[in-house]
Design goal:
The complex is a heterodimer of chains A (325) and B (246). Chain A is an alpha/beta fold and 325 residues long. Chain A is 33% helix and 28% strand. Chain A is elongated and about 85 Å long. Chain B has 13 helices and no strands.
């Protein structure tokens, strides 16, 4: 339903989107993940016809967004990042206005508005003015506005930004149910959202797609060498015996008076934990801790977008801007 | 057509949701009430030429001052507000052409402008009940109000798309309206017949006097309509260009 081929969007001072290609099928929810300023919003604006592409093509439901712009726009529902609304309108008036803008007329307007109010759980505020709504209801009203003409394609730019946790859960449930019969592309910089909502992820950084796949695929593809950590009571010389275990590629040791910590980098698929235990028993070391670390999606994301070595999960990551929820 | 009406309807409602509309309406009625009082006083003067009184409604200085100030205020929010709040993005990603958006907003502004004038029709009826009035010049005067109003409003609409700030949009519109209005007044400063003719073509003040005497000159109508179309076309061009630089 969404087909993007070699799309580039250049601004006078920068290249916002560079040679991006991807597609989204009907019944699929695809997450567009990237740090702030990575080009997510620009790419979405090109898809919705708000910005023309510099080169490359984008099609919505088979219509080119440049040459068949009106048809393409009629096939999509767009929730812009700002979720801007006309503050003087009441919710049901706004939805009726959006329906009419989409060419819906007559008695059908009322039916569609009712449908959108129901699906976005807006019944209790339907007669309130937009300016008096909380951020969560505004976001839902904007989402309802994007849905009111039953578009086969939905493009949602950061649909959960600024909401409280309960509202986030509600919006996500809504998106999941919407995604069953539509093609949904949603952007986010919130990682758990991708795990919770999306069937597939596109990671975008500096205008390029740097990785694509399901969350699980990305984790396993980018996990690199598994890491095993162990710590022993007292000062022990673990470097030699543990470093020679099968599957261990490298070892680093850090010892203090009361504890020795080792970090083992292992071959893919290797798991030397049982061997470490046996070695400790055989040498009379007291094992305090033994754990294998997995990369979280967050680590994958940081690895892809920070261009530096990723640090494993158990080490406390400094709360990095825009990544944590 | 449905989409056009949706745009017009939203703009129209937006006018009456803001206190500005009522302030303008009230100020306008006060001003025209004073002019009406002046007309009535004039008619009460013994020996006053009765047929000449009503055109004064259209040819006084206040008429122009008011139009020059009020038109920018009517048009300033049309695009500037939507660009500022971001709703323009929703509007332009709906399946509505730029031309429909521009025409819809312009039509709502023109509708509001004509609504301002509509109470003055009652003056005509009141005067008519007391003194004979030739309705031809009155109709021509109202036609000129609609045409010159459309012309000025198209300039204001164009100014509104140039900025995100409504006040700046109003000032820009005012700055563009002043030369449009005053260029023709230079006619009286010139002695060369060719120059006088050219400037006379733009002399809105004189045009208005012609209309209010019942002289409907096609050249004037062509000028207003083509200028209106030009500014609305430029607005559409700018709206498309805004897509390049959001």
């Amino acid at each position: 339903m969404i087909e993007v081929a070699n799309l580039t969007k250049r601004f006078p001072t920068e290249v916002a989107v560079s040679d991006v290609s991807f597609s989204v099928q009907q019944g699929e929810i695809v997450g567009f993940l990237g740090p702030n300023g990575a080009g997510k919003t620009t790419a979405m604006r090109v898809l919705t016809g708000f910005l023309p592409p510099t080169t490359g093509t984008a099609r919505i439901a088979g219509y080119d967004v440049v040459t068949r712009s009106l048809e393409a726009r009629a096939s999509l529902g767009y929730l812009p990042e700002t979720a801007a609304l006309y503050s003087e309108m009441r919710v049901h008036e706004y939805l009726a206005y959006r329906a009419r803008l989409e060419g819906v007329g007559g008695a059908e307007v009322k039916r569609r508005v009712g449908e959108a109010i129901e699906s976005c759980l807006l019944a209790e505020v339907a007669h309130r003015k937009v300016e008096n709504l909380s951020k969560g209801f505004r976001q839902r009203t904007a989402l309802a506005g994007a849905l009111v003409h039953r578009p086969p394609v939905l493009i949602l730019d950061e649909p959960t930004v600024g909401l409280d946790p309960m509202q986030i859960i509600k919006i996500r449930e809504m998106i999941r149910s919407l995604g069953r019969e539509r093609a949904v592309l949603l952007s986010t910089h919130i990682l758990p959202e991708v795990d919770a909502v999306c069937d597939r992820v596109l990671i975008i950084d500096r205008g390029r797609i740097v990785a694509e796949g399901t969350a699980a695929e990305l984790r396993s593809r980018l996990a690199g060498s598994p890491i095993v950590r162990a710590s022993f009571a007292g000062r022990v010389d673990a470097r030699e015996p543990l470093g020679s275990l099968p599957g261990v590629i490298a070892i680093s040791e850090e010892s203090a008076d009361d504890e020795t910590r080792v970090r083992l980098e292992c071959a893919t698929d290797a798991d030397p934990r049982e061997e470490i235990f046996r070695t400790a028993v055989a040498r009379g070391w007291t094992l305090r801790e033994l754990a294998r670390e997995k990369l979280s999606l967050e680590d994958v994301f940081i690895r892809l977008t920070r261009h530096e070595d990723v640090r494993p999960e158990s080490e406390s990551l400094p709360p990095s801007e825009g990544i944590a929820e | 057509m449905r989409k056009f009406l949706a745009v017009v309807g939203r703009e129209w409602r937006a006018y009456f949701f803001s206190p500005l509309a009522y302030v303008i309406l009230a100020a306008f009625l006060v001003m025209n009430g004073m002019i009406f009082a002046a007309i009535v006083a004039f008619l009460n003067t013994p020996g006053a030429p009765k047929g000449q009184a009503l055109p004064f409604l259209f040819t006084n200085t206040y008429f122009w001052i008011f139009n020059l100030f009020v038109v920018p205020i009517i048009t300033m929010r049309l695009f500037a507000e939507e660009r500022k709040t971001g709703t323009l993005e929703t509007l332009l990603t709906s399946p509505v052409s730029e031309t429909t958006v521009v025409l819809g907003k312009f039509a709502a502004a023109l509708g509001f402008f004509l609504t301002l004038w509509s109470p003055t029709l009652s003056y005509v009826l009141i005067l008519r009940s007391q003194t004979p009035i030739d309705l031809g010049p009155v109709a021509a005067g109202y036609l000129a109000i609609a045409l010159i109003g459309a012309y000025f409003l198209s300039i204001g609409t164009f100014a509104s798309i140039l900025t995100k700030n409504q006040i700046v949009a109003a000032i820009l519109a005012f700055a563009m309206l002043i030369p449009v209005f005053s260029a023709g007044l230079l006619e009286s400063l010139s002695n060369e017949p060719g120059k006088r003719d050219t400037l006379g073509y733009f002399n809105l003040w004189d045009h208005m006097e012609e209309f209010s005497r019942g002289v409907v000159d096609t050249r004037r109508i062509v000028y207003y309509l083509s200028a209106t179309a030009f500014f609305l076309f430029m607005t559409t061009v700018m709206l498309s260009a805004k897509k390049e630089t959001p």
